[in-house]
């Protein structure tokens, strides 16, 4: 496996870009898939957003300055693409992004790729009641076990704010799950 510095050099080299990009996809496809899936919920939508994410990465890799980890930059793009996707759908259907999330959760039960049970479905419903930032923080910490330091790079905010958001999100989810 190549290290991140070598991979970046190869991605910025015209001769090696294609091969390096395939390596990048192999390294990050699954993690980014599940990160996006936690946001947009549907398998098909996740595939679309993942493809858009990699297209954006491919077109903009020369702009990556290396101020953060490559992983953080990829996650930031995937997060932004996911939010853009939700907002575009909401606008197209003339409903709020919260309503889009609720529709996605309602559709999970008929999604052949959703292997969750009633408890997981109820957890997804609870997460959907959170404000966008709390949803992102909760998903990244709970499902992906991303460190606050890396999350701060991805979401471009402080670790303290993220810890507070996660704590509040957990309390709201607990309240949702324990109500009648």
UniProtKB/TrEMBL annotation:
<dbReference type="GO" id="GO:0016987">
    <property type="term" value="F:sigma factor activity"/>
</dbReference>
<dbReference type="InterPro" id="IPR014284">
    <property type="entry name" value="RNA_pol_sigma-70_dom"/>
</dbReference>
<dbReference type="Pfam" id="PF08281">
    <property type="entry name" value="Sigma70_r4_2"/>
</dbReference>
<protein>
    <recommendedName>
        <fullName>RNA polymerase sigma factor</fullName>
    </recommendedName>
</protein>
<keyword id="KW-0731">Sigma factor</keyword>
<comment type="similarity">
    <text>Belongs to the sigma-70 factor family. ECF subfamily.</text>
</comment>
<dbReference type="InterPro" id="IPR013324">
    <property type="entry name" value="RNA_pol_sigma_r3/r4-like"/>
</dbReference>
<dbReference type="InterPro" id="IPR013325">
    <property type="entry name" value="RNA_pol_sigma_r2"/>
</dbReference>
<dbReference type="GO" id="GO:0006352">
    <property type="term" value="P:DNA-templated transcription initiation"/>
</dbReference>
<keyword id="KW-0238">DNA-binding</keyword>
<feature type="domain" description="RNA polymerase sigma-70 region 2">
    <location>
        <begin position="24"/>
        <end position="91"/>
    </location>
</feature>
<dbReference type="InterPro" id="IPR036388">
    <property type="entry name" value="WH-like_DNA-bd_sf"/>
</dbReference>
<feature type="domain" description="RNA polymerase sigma factor 70 region 4 type 2">
    <location>
        <begin position="121"/>
        <end position="173"/>
    </location>
</feature>
<keyword id="KW-0805">Transcription regulation</keyword>
<keyword id="KW-0804">Transcription</keyword>
<dbReference type="InterPro" id="IPR000838">
    <property type="entry name" value="RNA_pol_sigma70_ECF_CS"/>
</dbReference>
<dbReference type="InterPro" id="IPR013249">
    <property type="entry name" value="RNA_pol_sigma70_r4_t2"/>
</dbReference>
<dbReference type="InterPro" id="IPR007627">
    <property type="entry name" value="RNA_pol_sigma70_r2"/>
</dbReference>
<dbReference type="GO" id="GO:0003677">
    <property type="term" value="F:DNA binding"/>
</dbReference>
<dbReference type="InterPro" id="IPR039425">
    <property type="entry name" value="RNA_pol_sigma-70-like"/>
</dbReference>
<dbReference type="Pfam" id="PF04542">
    <property type="entry name" value="Sigma70_r2"/>
</dbReference>
